[in-house]
């Protein structure tokens, strides 16, 4: 290493030392600017959250509205089969007490309601034999329940049901 | 003997720059989002942060932007600081990373080819005043070369760390450092010859 090289290295080291030792000061208002930028960011973030929250609420409200449009009846689903069976037992008990003939599959041609009941029983039997889907059975069970309801009400009042 | 938190092991020399120790209570308040605690952190570390940013970028406006970016990030991420490293070291790394990210984002510096980098710096003629000023001598280096010289020679980063920061190989870091120092030698020699 020549004397010039050593001198140059020394000079470079001195330059680096001066740079390392220097303590340049940031502008006096830099922290104020940082605080202001933080406020702006926070406000934007809050607005964004608010917008996202509002959009979520609107979407939720829309979904609920759509659901209620497609399913207007919010009432819980009724098990028409169980209801029909319970009503049938009730009717049988009433008939047993008053010694009147049964109103099930035995044809009561004189009573249109019991005739319809017998007809529904036949259709139900056929539907079960053909393994029809549940969707087709429900209306029959529902109609059976309505008929039994009407029959019970008529029996209570000592009337003969002709039409419901 | 009770040693002041911000003095060295002998208890005499005050700790400066990123070496300063910050009270646990200030950190705890900052982690709870207390802006006054962040103001305290800025009062202690704003200057070293700005100094490092300025040395790495060589530009006051960019250095100010960097400090702002770093402190905004600090406000958002301080909850993740677990105290595994001294706070100053953590902040220093955050500042260096932000500076390198800024350099990498700047399309002018994406071309990492050393030849092109030094040729472009050669094309800029320094004025006589710049030739005498230490910071200006450093500023005459290409941006990446300046950052590598600062990180290695002044901040104590290893070539492995620098290579990771720049997404380059260690030999790239070594090569740029050697050429950067060589350029500094030439600039110093030139300024000495002229004076």
Task: Describe, in plain words, how this protein is organized in 3D.
With 164 residues, chain A is an all-alpha fold. Helix content of chain A is 74%, strand content 0%. Chain A has helices at 3-21, 30-70, 80-98, 112-129, 134-157. Chain A is rod-shaped, with a radius of gyration of 43 Å. Chain B contains ten helices and no strands. In chain B, helix 2 runs antiparallel to helix 3, helix 2 crosses helix 4 (87-105) and helix 9 (159-166) packs across helix 10. In chain B, 68% of the residues lie in helices and 0% in strands. Chain B has helices at 24-31, 35-57, 60-77, 87-105, 114-122, 128-132, 134-139, 143-154, 159-166, 170-194. Classes of the chains: A mainly alpha (164), B mainly alpha (195). Chain A binds chain B through residues 4, 8-9, 11-12, 15-16, 18-20, 22-27, 30-31, 33-35, 37-38, 41, and chain B through 35, 39, 42-43, 46-47, 49-51, 54-55, 63-64, 67-68, 71-72, 75, 134-135, 137-138, 149-150, 153-154, 181, 184-185, 188-189, 192.
Report low-confidence residues of chain B grouped into runs of 5 or more.
none
Subunit arrangement of the protein: heterodimer
Distance between the termini of chain B: 52 Å
Average residue pLDDT of chain B: 82
Detail the poorly predicted runs of chain A: 104-109
Beta-strand portion of chain A reads under 5%
Q: How much helicity do the residues of chain A have?
A: over 70%
Helix fraction of chain B, binned, reads 55-70%
Give the class of chain B from helix and strand content and strand pairing: mainly alpha
Mean pLDDT of chain A: 80
Largest sheet of chain B: none
Can you summarize the main beta sheet of chain A? none
* DSSP helical segment count of chain B: 10
Class computed from helices, strands and strand pairing of chain A: mainly alpha
Radius of gyration of chain A: 43 Å
Q: What overall form of chain B do the CA principal axes indicate?
A: elongated
Straight-line distance between termini of chain A: 120 Å
According to DSSP, the number of beta strands of chain A is 0
Most extensive protein-chain contact, per-chain counts = A-B, 24 and 32 residues
